[in-house]
Amino acid sequence: MDLELRHLRCLIAIVDAGSFTDAALELGVSQAAVSRTLAGMENALGTRVLHRTSRSITLTAVGKQVLVRARNLLSAVDDLVREAATGHTRLRVGHAWSAMGSHTTAFQRRWAQDRPDVALELIRTNTSTGGLAEGMCDLAVVRGSFDAHRFASTIVGVERRTVAVAADDPWARRRSIGLDEIRERTVVIDRRTGSTTPDLWPIGTRPRLEYTRDIDDWLVAIASGRTIGITPQSTATQYRRDGVAFRPLRGAAPVAVHVIWLKEDPHPATAAAVGLLSELYAAAGSCPR
Asked: Domain holding 167: CATH number?
């Protein structure tokens, strides 16, 4: 006999209720059915999970381990069922760094107003596809490269690039920084999710590069004064931090903001989300040309 979810639910009911009789009431079955289900579980496991006497029920050492795993497994199953059931009544939008930048709050509020039937959830995850490839979201906002053969996409806007420097860096007192000046410095790059790559400079003119794998580590490295960073304006909006200053970068092309989604079976609200984001970027004068 294989271990089944009903076995796990039966064990939890017995432990929580404190008796077979009360567990039967909780499960809506007979006491005999509870006894048979528990016996089936112990047979599947090949060991006892409960010590039973006429006066008490206690978990065996194995039973204690099984109970913990049973609760976790059933919780995961409940989450799975809930996700499947809510399906199109929730839209999960993933992003790696800075969501929709300065448009994030407006997007959230407009969405709640225009689409009260579809709950919006923003998910930040440190992957190049904002969690889309991992199944963590229904569509994602990305500013770096992605597999165009696997994902459908559209550009909803563009963002100018900025230079991130330590707050006490001499460059923090300037109004803007030129791209050609960067070669004098060490630039920290997140090669997994960042929008800056060595290709921003011609070969032979590239600055010294260091690498990190997370926005927080990126900011820490810059605040230390050892490095500087180049990032879209949205990062400055979402991650204002003591010790780090952002200044406009001259001489570099802006960053395209893509919305990507799976080509097969896209969420029904995808077009509405893309339309709203495009509207917000256009209103700010940052629509793609």
From this structure: 3.40.190.10
pLDDT for residue 213 is more than 90? no
**Is 84 a residue whose pLDDT tops 80?**
no
Strand pairing category for 139-142 and 255-262: antiparallel
| Separation of alpha carbons 118 and 264, rounded Å | 20
CATH for 15: 1.10.10.10
**Beta-carbon count within 10 A of 140 CB:** 27
Distance CA 40, CA 34 (A): 10
Gap between the Cα atoms of 51 and 181, Å rounded: 75
Total tally of structural domains belonging to the chain: 3
pLDDT tens readout for residues 34-56: 999 999 999 999 999 999 887 78
Q: What is the pTM of this model?
A: 0.70
